[in-house]
Specification:
This protein is mostly helical and 134 residues long. The chain has five helices and no strands. The protein has helices at 2-16, 51-61, 80-86, 92-101, 120-131. The longest helix has 15 residues, at 2-16.
């Protein structure tokens, strides 16, 4: 009986973690193996993004980042404004590596997913945008 319950629980977890598409018009089709971003969501709560940070904002909007992070509202990970308040421009290289390699421990026990197919240049643009939100 325990094996049946364990198997049923495992099956439920697998089903719930499947690839589900949101039924909204702003759904981004971001494939972790494909860094060509196609659709864009607004990430700065309707505010204009300065031109020097627009590429980073667009990259974030087209990625899966907004599933865990938001500018002002905590979802799974910290808000972008919390990240901007905690780090400075001197931390850019470390944050770029966190985006690419993932990590755990800086904001609690929930791990950040690795994004190995995001280039260092794109991750740097994303970090510059986030740090601009101070």
């Amino acid at each position: 009986m325990k094996k049946v319950i364990l198997l049923a629980t495992f099956a439920a977890v697998l089903i719930s973690c499947g690839d589900k598409k949101k039924e909204t018009t702003d759904e981004t089709d971001f494939n972790a193996t494909d860094t060509s971003f196609t659709e864009k969501k607004e990430v700065k709560d309707g505010e204009d993004v300065p031109a020097e940070f627009k590429k980073g904002a667009d990259l974030i909007a087209a990625s899966d980042c907004l599933g865990c992070h938001n500018v002002n509202d905590k979802i799974v990970g910290p808000t972008y404004k919390e990240v901007a308040a905690k780090y400075t421009d001197k931390d850019e290289a470390m944050l770029v590596q966190k985006i690419i390699e993932g990590g755990k421990g800086n904001w609690g026990e929930v791990p950040m997913t690795a994004h190995p197919n995001v280039t260092k240049e794109d991750a740097s643009e994303m970090v510059k945008y986030i740090l601009s939100l101070k």
